[in-house]
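Subject: design request, 145 residues
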């Protein structure tokens, strides 16, 4: 395995006491088959700043001989789109480039924002396009003119 791509994530569960930082690798083996492995999962402190995340990642990557001052074995990193993770992995932290935002995380954020929409607007006298997909009628709130 000459180069790897790593994925980092922090998971904090509601009011529980611990947050976890996980590191997974994805690479092609000698037969060009995709391989994914969990490298590490550790309990983290309550501070999720780049200044706290970068040293923890560096320590664990050094432990696994994936980081030796340059990041030649790590060709890319994927993480959530949080500025703390981007900074910890990128030029302000470990110097990994590129840092790729997780597509699934981006879609999840968009869907969550969509659920926060309180009103559906449509031209006067018309139902919103989505109303035809539901058997029951929903009240449409139109803006006052």
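Subject: RE: design request

Done. Sequence follows.
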């Amino acid at each position: 395995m000459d180069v790897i791509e790593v994925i980092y994530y922090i998971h904090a569960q509601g009011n529980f006491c611990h947050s976890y930082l996980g590191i997974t690798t994805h690479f092609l083996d000698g037969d060009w088959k995709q391989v994914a492995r969990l490298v590490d999962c550790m309990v983290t402190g309550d501070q999720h700043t780049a200044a706290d995340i970068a040293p923890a990642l560096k320590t664990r990557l050094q432990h696994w001989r994936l980081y030796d001052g340059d990041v030649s074995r790590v060709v890319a990193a994927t993480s959530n789109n949080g500025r703390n993770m981007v900074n910890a992995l990128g030029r302000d932290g470990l110097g990994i480039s590129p840092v790729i935002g997780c597509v699934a995380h981006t879609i999840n954020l968009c869907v969550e924002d969509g659920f926060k929409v309180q009103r559906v607007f449509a031209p006067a006298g018309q139902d919103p396009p989505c109303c035809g997909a539901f058997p029951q009628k929903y009240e449409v709130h139109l803006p006052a003119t």
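The chain has a mean pLDDT of 75.
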